[in-house]
Design a protein that fits this description.
The chain is of the alpha/beta class. The protein has 15 helices and ten strands. Helices cover 39% and strands 9% of the residues.
Length: 423
């Protein structure tokens, strides 16, 4: 099998891994080296696949051979699929030639488990070492730390990569036992804990010694599969909150489960991926990271899943109407961020503008406030838009109408002679 055939197989096998957006790393130009991670705002060249996922180029597996038999995975050992494995030299040569042709700015490297986690990680380290030391590649590298890998190898991997990630994949321990019996919660969390601790130590080292080697300077991330197990949005969001609090993750990625294999414990292959649910979880994740919300505020045991018709911030506002309206001339930054239609940038603009005079409704739109949502939840100089009247029910309908154009529209289907018009 030649390198092009391997590339075709292993890039296709890597497409279900969503945790591949750019890192925000700041590896600048370095004398005698080629490449950097600051040639664009995002820090790394990325593209978008047909289903809307963010895909970093070159995104590839070291191998799709795997000793594990995870029921949801297309690369599981019991699945009948074409297998391929790069040698470290082939992968390094392919990456550097893609870079020189300006196809890519970085590498996203994951892998199936060949023999065992340590053997697989050793091959990944060898490939990255050739890139860094032989080819003197200074661009962005994101590498997957395989659960169960020895701490010594995770250390070596972190010194070669800009970002590391350990995929949790299934949100609950029960799901792991059922669908991925070869994996364990402890095997996943141990390298995450090591990366977090080592990253903090490295920051302290760099304060004392400017030329100390950097360990995964862009931090770590993980991925959760949504829809393969019956876990609720509340369970997923609580797990996400814990990961941000305890392990200081940069990102948690959510991947709507795409049915690619038939199994009694999984959704049937004709079930569509829950892309809207994935979208709502990303919106809620943004509220956790930048808006000061907590998982328990957004959902509870009585409402464990998001209303797909409105975004999570609007959903929270509908359940806390006693908090509103917020007066934009006096509210603090945290209160402004709770208003649907006001984002981080527009909240800061409001704080800056009101130092020089009182704000009126017509000023807010110019500051980036989305008035289709915000008009129900704020006042400016004590006033709401003229003639605006609503009840909780009409408010919900108004927010749904504002959200509808932003959502994927139902696919148009040609009716047959035997279909009824209202079907």
């Amino acid at each position: 099998m030649d390198v092009l055939e391997k590339l075709t197989i292993l890039t296709d096998a890597a497409k279900y891994d969503a945790a591949c957006t750019s890192s925000g790393g700041t590896r600048g130009s370095k004398k005698g080296y080629i490449g950097n991670t600051s040639s664009s705002v995002a820090g790394c060249c990325h593209s978008f696949s047909a289903d809307g996922r963010c895909v970093t180029l070159l995104k590839v597996l070291m191998t799709n051979c795997c000793v594990y038999d995870c029921k949801y995975c297309v690369n599981r050992r019991s699945n009948d699929t074409r297998r391929a494995t790069f040698t470290p030299e082939e992968l390094a040569d392919l990456t550097i030639n893609f870079y020189r042709r300006n196809y890519i700015e970085g590498l996203f490297l994951s892998s199936g488990v060949l023999r065992n986690p340590d053997y697989t990680t050793e091959r990944m380290i060898r490939a990255l070492r050739i890139l860094r030391e032989t080819y003197r590649f200074n661009g962005y590298i994101h590498a997957k730390a395989i659960p169960g890998t020895s701490p010594e190898l995770v250390e070596q991997l972190g010194l070669l990569a800009d970002r590391l990630s350990v995929n949790i994949e299934l949100p609950s321990e029960a799901g792991l036992r059922t669908l991925a019996p070869d994996k364990s919660k402890q095997a996943i969390l141990a390298p995450m804990r090591q990366i977090q601790t080592r990253n903090q130590q490295n920051k302290e080292e760099l304060v004392k010694y400017r030329h100390a080697p950097k360990f995964a300077p862009a931090g770590q991330s993980t991925q959760l599969i949504v829809g393969a197990t019956p876990d609720s949005d509340l369970h997923i969001l609580r797990l996400t909150q814990g990961l941000y609090d305890k392990y200081r993750l940069k990102r948690v990625f959510y991947s709507a489960y795409v049915p690619v294999v038939e199994h009694a414990l999984l959704p049937a292959k004709d079930v569509k991926p829950p892309l809207l649910r994935e979208h709502r979880l990303y919106q809620a994740d943004w509220l956790l990271r930048f808006y000061g919300f907590r998982a328990e505020e957004l959902l509870d045991n009585h409402h464990p899943d998001f209303d797909p018709r409105v975004d999570p911030k609007c959903s929270w506002a509908l359940n806390h109407l006693d908090f509103f309206p917020v007066e934009v001339n006096t509210a603090d930054y945290e209160a402004l961020l709770r208003v649907p239609g006001i984002g981080i940038t527009s909240a800061r603009r409001i704080l800056t503008a009101r130092r020089t005079g009182r704000l009126h409704l017509e000023d807010l739109r110019r500051m980036g406030v989305v008035m289709k949502r915000a008009q129900y939840f704020l006042t400016a100089s004590g006033k709401m838009p003229n003639g605006l009247r609503f009840t909780p029910d009409s408010l919900l309908r108004g927010l749904i109408a504002a959200e509808q154009p932003l959502l994927p529209q139902q696919e148009m289907v040609q009716l047959s002679l035997f279909d009824s018009a209202g079907a």
